[in-house]
Amino acid sequence: MAYLNRNNFGKFWPIARKGSKYVARSSHNLGESIPLMIVMRDILKLVRTKKELKKLINEKQIKINGKLIQVVNYPICLFDVLSLEVMKKNYKMVLLESKKFGFEEIADKDAKSRVYKVLDKKILSKGVVQLNLNSGKNVLSKEKVGIGDGIVLDFSGKILGVVKLDKGSNAVVIEGKHAGNKGKIEHVFERGGKKLVKIKLNDGSKVKKDSGESVNVWVKNVMVE
Questions:
Q1: Which of 28, 99, 186, 205 minimizes the number of CB atoms within 10 Å of its CB?
Q2: Of 93, 28, 101, which Cα lies nearest the Cα of 65?
């Protein structure tokens, strides 16, 4: 089915609950994405109709993470990079303090790669390790990478760098009551069998105003960048 009942779209979608009965549905990754149609028309307001979006797609003007897009409801997930060739614009999907997805315009130089979280790893032959990443992606590596670390990949799949889950790294909370908040990791520790990080929140954070300088967050709910 190409549509969702408006009452059933993700709580992280930044569009009104009231409106037409049905909205576009992502072609896959339904639970963690917003379809391209909604992003282009209702959020970024760069097209007015499905026909206008199809025209851009047919002219090969739209890429997500460097891949040419051919369907109007292609899913866009957290930290994906949307590039619009004819408009000379690039956007990264981010998570706002409101716990809604938003889009941050970025420069061309920052639109050639994206960060992924290492969820698991498996040792293969000859010291090669398979890293299992968020968004369902896997990559082979000989880098020293831990679970919870971030890796920066270009859109050919080459590893450009590793961001350690450690003191001094920038982090964003992606789930839980502090979702959308950003800051710098002060400390990684264990409590009650869970691994947590203490994050010093950035200036301007609503949570910082309400709860103080730092928050403790379960590692599962954090991504370094």
A1: 28
A2: 93
Query: 125-151: string of b/e by CB count within 10 Å (b at 16+)?
Result: eeeebebbbbbeeebeeeeebeebbbb
Q: What is the CATH number of domain 113-162?
A: 2.40.50.740
Q: Distance between CA atoms of 192 and 85, rounded to whole angstroms?
A: 50
CATH architecture of structural domain 170-224: Roll (2.30)
Alpha carbons 171 and 67: distance in angstroms, whole number: 27
pTM (two decimals): 0.85
Task: Report the candidate in 187, 188, 180, 171 with the shortest Cα–Cα distance to residue 224.
Answer: 171
Phi, psi of 185 (to 5 degrees): -70, 125
Q: Which residues pair with 26 in a beta bridge?
A: none
- Residues 113-132 pLDDT 10s: 999 999 999 988 877 899 99
CATH class of 3-110: alpha beta
Given this model, what pLDDT does residue 142 score? 85
